[in-house]
Design a protein that fits this description.
The structure is a single chain. With about 290 residues, the chain is mainly beta. The chain has strands at about 15-25, 30-35, 40-45, 50-55, 60-70, 75, 100-105, 110-115, 120-125, 140-150, 155-165, 170-185, 190-200, 205, 210-220, 225-235, 245-255, 260-270, 275-285. The chain is elongated, with a radius of gyration of 23 Å. About 25% of the residues are buried.
Length: about 290
């Protein structure tokens, strides 16, 4: 059993941790622990009622990492898509053993997996490149390393490379190294990211002088719906004399459950009169 603790205050409004209480007779209860000491455990249930349990009857108290109780009594599962926007990553990390498969625009297929709570690896492929017939790899590889500073600040850095046939003759890679800072909770957060493109070919590699800035955000509107925006500022990639802001903008609605997500939205590219449709499917596990 968890060691008796001093009385605790009610959890922060809108972000209350749900606990699983196991009694010595095998019964399990779920609710918010609002007080715990050597004599009693006071549990607030999802409907707002409070239950006092003699401490001697309690075998174990564990925080439900994947759920929370809202102020209206609803139990929400944690958003499993908290580590990503549409393409860019957040500063939040997958926990050890968590992962997801993502299919973006019928082009990019990738698998992301948490090796530890602080290291995530990525592997995948670009489906149309299988049809090119040119020699070389067709592979997406990446790594992300990060952690949290307190409850709301999350920092991460890493790299991603796309190894494609035809780059540099026999095949090579393009990609970027990145760093990102995220502020907020899994349900509402904003991120600023910096990235630097690179190329790798048979003749060597180079790091581009361009610095790409990303500004992204996520707002969960309900148990299963969120709004996601991702915006890329790429000044040197826009033709000189173009009066449009050198930024690629995107906005999408994310529909999701505990193990799946679908993103439906559009991407605005300078010079195009209509946005490019965006469709992404993800399956989460672990």
């Amino acid at each position: 059993m968890s060691a008796p603790a001093e009385a605790t205050a009610p959890a922060e409004s809108g972000k209350r941790e749900l606990s699983r209480i196991t009694l010595k007779d095998g019964q399990e209860l779920h609710g918010v622990v609002v007080r715990q000491d050597s004599q009693v455990v006071v549990l607030e249930l999802a409907d707002g009622d409070r239950m006092e349990l003699p401490a001697r009857q309690v075998k174990d108290i564990a925080v439900e990492r994947n759920a929370q109780v809202r102020d209206n009594g609803e139990i929400w599962f944690q958003d499993p898509n908290r580590t990503r926007y549409l393409y860019a990553p957040t500063g939040m990390m997958l926990r050890q053993g968590e992962g997801y498969f993502s299919q973006k625009e019928l082009f990019f297929s990738s698998l992301n997996y948490g090796l530890t709570d602080h290291i995530t690896v990525q592997a995948g492929a670009v489906v149309p490149a299988w049809l090119l017939g040119a020699p070389g790899f067709n592979f997406i590889g990446g790594i992300k390393v990060g952690g949290s500073v307190g409850d709301r600040l999350h920092l991460a850095a890493g790299a991603q490379g796309l190894f494609l046939p035809g780059i540099g003759g026999m095949g090579g890679a393009v990609g970027f190294v990145f760093g990102t800072a995220t502020y907020g909770t899994p349900d509402a957060h904003l991120s600023v990211g910096l990235g630097k493109p690179f190329t790798l070919t048979n003749s060597g590699g180079s790091l581009d002088s361009t610095i790409i800035t990303t500004l992204s955000g996520n707002l969960r509107l309900s148990q299963r719906v969120a709004l996601v925006t991702e915006n890329w500022l790429m000044p040197t990639f826009i033709e000189s004399g173009n009066s449009q802001l050198p930024m690629i903008n995107s906005l999408a609605v994310r529909l999701f459950g505990e193990s799946w997500a679908v993103d439906l939205g559009g991407i605005r590219v300078p010079g195009l009169s209509l946005p490019i449709p965006w469709v992404d499917f993800a399956y989460n596990f672990g």
